[in-house]
Fold this sequence. Notes:
Blueprint: E1 8-14, E2 31-37, E3 45-54, H1 59-63, E4 84-94, E5 104-112, E6 116-120, E7 125-126, H2 145-157, E8 165-168, H3 174-186, E9 191-196, H4 199-207, E10 213-216, H5 222-229, E11 234-239, H6 243-250, E12 253-261, H7 265-268, H8 280-284, E13 288-291, H9 301-313, E14 323-328, H10 333-338, E15 348-353
Parallel strand pairs: 8-9, 8-11, 9-10, 11-12, 12-13, 14-15
Antiparallel strand pairs: 1-2, 3-4, 3-6, 3-15, 4-5, 5-7
Amino acid sequence: xxxxxxxxxxxxxxxxxxxxxxxxxxxxxxxxxxxxxxxxxxxxxxxxxxxxxxxxxxxxxxxxxxxxxxxxxxxxxxxxxxxxxxxxxxxxxxxxxxxxxxxxxxxxxxxxxxxxxxxxxxxxxxxxxxxxxxxxxxxxxxxxxxxxxxxxxxxxxxxxxxxxxxxxxxxxxxxxxxxxxxxxxxxxxxxxxxxxxxxxxxxxxxxxxxxxxxxxxxxxxxxxxxxxxxxxxxxxxxxxxxxxxxxxxxxxxxxxxxxxxxxxxxxxxxxxxxxxxxxxxxxxxxxxxxxxxxxxxxxxxxxxxxxxxxxxxxxxxxxxxxxxxxxxxxxxxxxxxxxxxxxxxxxxxxxxxxx
Length: 355
Ligand SMILES: NC(=O)c1ccc[n+]([C@@H]2O[C@H](COP(=O)([O-])OP(=O)(O)OC[C@H]3O[C@@H](n4cnc5c(N)ncnc54)[C@H](OP(=O)(O)O)[C@@H]3O)[C@@H](O)[C@H]2O)c1
């Protein structure tokens, strides 16, 4: 079906693969903004106006990583292609019986950094209202990839259970803030310890999210603080960051304990090798290290989301202050996304697109 109007959109494409941190301006800029004409809709497609971009650290690996594209867990973004993103959008025109203009949809990783986007209706999800008038943006965070990664990483990859001592890094971020609450409220962990990058974030992780302890990995006393809060050692470490924090955690995981590896934020913008001084701890303490992708557990996603939404409805999981929403024009999107790598978010970082 042809659209009745010819639409053009501003769209960020990947201009060059960065070595180290993405470059935001100048001749080596990682992204380039262009104007494109949107082709007529094909059967089963919908044309949408983007309302929100989901900002995810993992996108950094979509554009360049040490994993060869054929071994990567989803299709990567080739140079010259639109930058991908999770989005919430409003349908403008529809060539699908499932959607009509005005409907709200989300696509959690096949949207693009564009003002207008064409989606396959079959890959998009309609958005239903959330309890207690919670904002629908939580479908991109707490009730999207972040919540699913937190739950499946703790329960399935980490084998976490009631009575465990659990440590979670990037604890004030989108995934970490959900992991802390799931561990405390849904799993009944004995002790949950967050690790975050400022004293203010640690106070939020303790006082608002309910962690028993939270320590600042940027503090000069981090190693002593970590030892002090883990006198009985740790059953499960939920690792969002890798690097020096992982190295320190190798010395605190119990014999036969588990490290669930969710991500490696500290290495995404670095070409340096990750140096682990404590690697032999894995042998000495028979530690299991298990990487996971939440996509592995999509068959369990409806039940997980029902549990998470139920826990938010009855107040066990708190989502107030769990989002950092930045209103911005499309031109600002790369810079806003990059704030994740300097800790410029509490909870989920979202861009509310203004035109
Ligand atoms: N496996 C999966 O299926 C899956 C799914 C979703 C996300 N993830 C992973 O989950 C992790 C969190 O991602 P997210 O998108 O939810 O982001 P996020 O936690 O909301 O934001 C990233 C946070 O990482 C911290 N950080 C940034 N640079 C760091 C560094 N060099 N060292 C240590 N911490 C650093 C910052 O917090 P501080 O201020 O505390 O430093 C920042 O707020 C990532 O590793 C991501 O790849 C995995």
